[in-house]
Amino acid sequence: MKVLVVGSGGREHAIVWKLSQSRHVDKIYCTPGNAGIADIAECISVDTSDFKGLIDFVKYDWIDLTFVGPEEPLSRGIVDAFEKEGRKIVGPTKDAAQLESSKVFSKDFMRRYKIPTAEYKVFSSHPQAEDYVRMKGAPIVIKADGLAAGKGVIVASTVDEAIKAIRLIMKDRAFGDAGDRIVVEECLQGEEASFMAFTDGITIVPMVSSQDHKRVYDQDKGPNTGGMGAYSPAPVVTKELEELVMEKVMKPTVLGMKSEGIVFKGILYAGLMIKDGVPNVLEFNCRLGDPETQPVLMRLDSDFYEICDAIACQKLSEINISWKDEAAVCVVLASGGYPGKYDKGKIISGLDEAAKVADSFVFHAGTSFENGKIATNGGRVLGVTATGADIAAAKAKAYEAVSKISFEGMHYRKDIADRAIKR
Ligand code: AMP
Ligand code: GLY
Q1: Pocket of ligand 2 from Cβ distances under 6 Å
Q2: Cβ(421) to ligand 1 under 6 A?
Q3: 37, 146, 187, 348: least surrounded by Cβ within 10 Å?
Q4: 386 and 291 share one domain
Q5: Low-confidence residues of the chain: pLDDT under 70
Q6: For position 422, what pLDDT does the model report?
Q7: Quick check: is 176 in a domain?
Q8: Is 149 left (phi over 0), alpha (psi -120 to 50) or beta?
Q9: In angstroms, what is the span from residue 153 Cα to ligand 1's centroid?
């Protein structure tokens, strides 16, 4: 079988890496890919927004299945375009992807189906939103409705901060149309976890639990990032909690979608806030998390192509999905300045040494080739991931591999997974 993977991050490297182990897969293409992906897949340069170009490529090269990593093409209807041409693709349609692409859609959907989430109100004009915030007080959360590259959510600890956020989104239009409407939401306390599941619109199979680290510095200090590291399993997600989330969140979501005539196929990701064993949904994503995918796919025992094929063909109930009974930890190495401005093109050294560390794998996120050498090409550069008997063992191996790698300006968190170890 031939597979095309759409995307260029650490998540896509993990997807390509796992697919390359499948007994069914002979050849993998990735667009645009990165320097690490190029080791196991042929990277092509069809623009990921050019659906016609992608479909032509898939037809011309007899690609059997396409897997979409990031939310952006999903939210613009890549799955609709492929399915219209009879091409097999893993991911939700544009309508289904609204669970991620519109916070207003997602919150109203949760309200309709009584899915536990923070109390909220929607505004399309800023003076009214400001009045509401003054009445409610802080802490309070302001969310731009549309996709804003992970920057559209502001957890405000004062009313002033909340008003600034409202003005930034609605008056200054910092995120363009994504800020036409906002959600103002109650601030929840507790511990966060990522709950991802495979679904074909009928059957829902939860993946092993995971947790990411959104803040840039140790002890959760500094601004939010795309994710500075992740680990799996997340001890906060007990067996009872998993059952509760399946009953209260995942099943009502897929069934609710179905009752509205929308088949949700692909990956359903609920970002949860858990307090005293009670989960609330902070957000839905309609794709695999990054960097959670790196440790989660390292723990997958089953053939990933078979899972993808079963999702696309709505036969998920016919396969068994098994996981390795071990832990995995991923440490993200970032460019100097990230999540703010950063330079690119810094040569990375030590990758060969890191590759020798047992049970570890270095997933590339923002890398490219510079005169035959591997160089930085993004904010998040590498996701150094390792498995072990428990989280502490996995963490030790991941940081051993990290210690071999360097590039100018490199920074990373030293406390990835400590939260799980201390519990
Ligand atoms: P979202 O994109 O909606 O998940 O928001 C990004 C991050 O903002 C989350 O991972 C949380 O850390 C935080 N956040 C979002 N909504 C809330 C909330 N209602 N209460 C507290 N923190 C939140
Ligand atoms: N790591 C969070 C996300 O992928 O949205």
Answers
A1: 212, 227, 285, 289-290, 292
A2: no
A3: 187
A4: no
A5: none
A6: 79
A7: yes
A8: left
A9: 7
Residue pair 398/407 in contact (Cβ under 8 Å)? The answer is: no
232 and 302 both lie in a single domain: yes
Ligand nearest to the CA of 71: 2
pLDDT number for residue 224? 86
- Domain check: are 198 and 258 in the same one? yes
Cβ of 14 closer than 6 Å to ligand 1, yes or no, is no
**HSE-CB of 46 using CA atoms within 13 angstroms:** 17
**Residue bearing the CA closest to ligand 1, atom 13:** 155
DSSP 179: G
Q: What is this structure's pTM?
A: 0.97
267 and 205 co-located in one domain: yes
Q: Which ligand is nearest to the CA of 190?
A: 1
- Plot region of 77 (φ>0 → left; ψ -120 to 50 → alpha; else → beta): left
Cα 282 to averaged position of ligand 1 atoms, centre (Å):
5
**CA nearest ligand 2 atom 4, residue:** 289
The C-alpha angle with vertex 167 and arms to 164 and 172, in degrees rounded to 5, equals 125
Coil, strand or helix at 16: helix
Ligand 1 and 187: CB distance under 6 A: yes
- What's the rounded Cα separation, in Å, for the pair 153 and 193? 17
Determine the pLDDT at residue 148.
87
271 lines ligand 1 (CB under 6 A): yes
236 lines ligand 1 (CB under 6 A): no
In a domain, 115, yes or no: no
Per-residue pLDDT at 267: 98
Closest CA to 80 of 120, 51, 58: 51
Torsion of CA 187, 188, 191, 196, to 10 degrees: -90
Assess whether 304 and 197 both reside in one domain: yes
pLDDT at 247: 98
Q: Is residue 150 part of a domain?
A: yes
| Ligand 1: centre distance to CA 268 (Å) | 17
How many domains, in total, are found in the chain? 4
Cβ contacts of 99 within 8 Å, gap of 6 or more: 92, 105, 106, 109, 253, 257, 264, 268, 284, 285, 286
Residue nearest to ligand 1 atom 15, measured at CA:
282
**Å from CA of 152 to ligand 1 middle:** 10
Q: Which helix (H) or strand (E) holds 392?
A: helix 391-402
Q: Which of 150, 189, 205, 154 lies closest to 317 in space, CA to CA?
A: 205
Does the residue 100 lie in any domain?
no
Mutate to test the pocket of ligand 1, among 282, 290, 292, 419 (most ligand atoms within 8 A of CB): 282
